[in-house]
What does this fold into?
Amino acid sequence: MSRKRTFTECIVWAIDEWHQPLYLFPRDCPRIVVWANEGSTPEDRAAWCGAGSRMTAYIESESAEAVSRGRVYRYELPPARFEALDDAGMWIARSTVEPISLEPIDDLPRALEAENVELRILPSLAPLRAVWSTTLHASGIRLRHARSWS
It folds into this structure.
């Protein structure tokens, strides 16, 4: 799990292109996204990752309709003002940033597929807690909204 940070100033958050599939979901949709890295074992890849996909995203069945009908907006931002947080492609700017462009994304499953992300739907994300004990990288977002996560 990533370390907890506290910010007392107004900041603009951004994600790099490689990690943007983490945010191709409705805002409050709980999800776990995993991917292999150099140290990942073939066993962990086989158990948790889609064959040939770059990432595997897990959501709960309660969120499936929201994902299939959801819309997100992708803002392209000028990189000059951003500093890396060295955590899964996250960047911050400490002042106002004007977007270069705005792209609505209406078909989230298709957008995930275009990013080579396999989407898996489960009754609950709770059984995936063990993924953080594997050799894979795991990112959990909005898990406080997941069924039986507490």
The beta strands are 12-15, 31-35, 55-60, 72-76, 83-84, 90-93, 101-105, 117-122, 137-141. The chain is about 15% helix and 30% strand.
